[in-house]
Write a structure and sequence with these properties.
By secondary structure, this protein is α+β, with helices and mostly antiparallel strands. Helices cover 51% and strands 11% of the residues. The protein is built from twelve helices and six strands. Strands 3-5-4-6 form a four-stranded antiparallel beta sheet. The protein has a two-stranded antiparallel sheet with strand order 1-2. A hairpin with a 6-residue loop joins strand 4 (133-139) and strand 5 (146-150).
């Protein structure tokens, strides 16, 4: 296969894939065409071409692989267009909750609610259902509350390759295109860093256990919401169907 043909095939894979494409997977698929070195060379060439042409999309690393994505400078126009078309996007409540989980993970639902100053169970439940956060096990304390972390879908949603690519907390608003409450930012910054060791977390060992934990967490969040009196609940619970998500 000629280098130009290899590049064309890689472009087609990137175009068709619903998830970021790992370099290692491409190298394995094209082992007879030069393997990793050939794949890396063509990815770099694709990246150079799309950057030179300055079209409507670019090639970026996100979620541990490569994908085509729209350019940041087009975001305001795209946002206006898709909002007009009725696309759902993340609510402020959901973005606040994601900020807490992202910067203080792993964290329990009561800890999230304490930082936000309102009952956040409905938002957490919705974010779980949308796969923006996941159950990361149980905290080995009284009551064994569930712990939550962000997911690969969270990284993809915000164009991050790794959780370590998160900007400083005060710059999170620039990443999400919304202003986060300054008091909440201060509360997250002043909160102690999670000091949970692996020994203090009970994690699922199989996919079946992980699925069971997520189902149990959803039930637990719904149950706790149901036990709250109307006076103590907040509009997050009342608007849980609208708390999601720009995809």
């Amino acid at each position: 296969m000629e280098p130009t043909e290899l590049r064309a095939v890689i472009e087609a894979i990137l175009f068709l894939s619903n998830e970021p494409v790992r370099t290692e997977d491409l190298a394995e698929a094209f082992a007879d065409e030069g393997g990793l070195d050939a794949v890396i060379a063509q990815i770099e060439e694709i990246k150079r071409i799309v950057e030179t042409n300055i079209g409507g999309f670019m090639l970026e690393q996100a979620g541990g692989g490569w994908r085509f994505a729209t350019r940041a400078e087009h975001e305001p126009t795209l946002k206006k267009y898709f909002d007009r078309k009725g696309q759902n996007r993340l609510s402020i409540a959901a973005l606040e909750t994601l900020a807490i989980v992202a910067y203080r993970q792993p964290i329990t639902a009561p800890e999230v609610s304490e930082l936000r100053g309102v009952n956040s169970n409905a938002v957490i439940r919705t974010l779980l259902e949308r796969h923006m956060i996941r159950v990361a096990g149980r905290k080995n304390v009284v009551g064994s509350p569930f712990l939550y972390r962000t997911t690969k879908d969270f990284l993809l949603h915000f164009g991050l390759n790794d959780i370590r690519d998160l900007p400083r907390l005060e710059e999170f608003g620039d990443l999400i295109g919304e202003n986060i409450n300054e008091e909440l930012v201060a509360a997250i910054e002043s909160a102690p860093e999670p000091a949970i060791t692996p020994a203090e977390i009970t994690e699922a060992s199989t996919e079946e256990e992980a699925a069971a934990n997520e189902a149990a967490a959803l039930d637990d969040l719904a149950r706790v919401d149901g036990e709250e009196s109307p006076a103590s609940t907040n509009d997050d619970a009342l608007q849980s169907d609208d708390d999601v998500q720009r995809e």
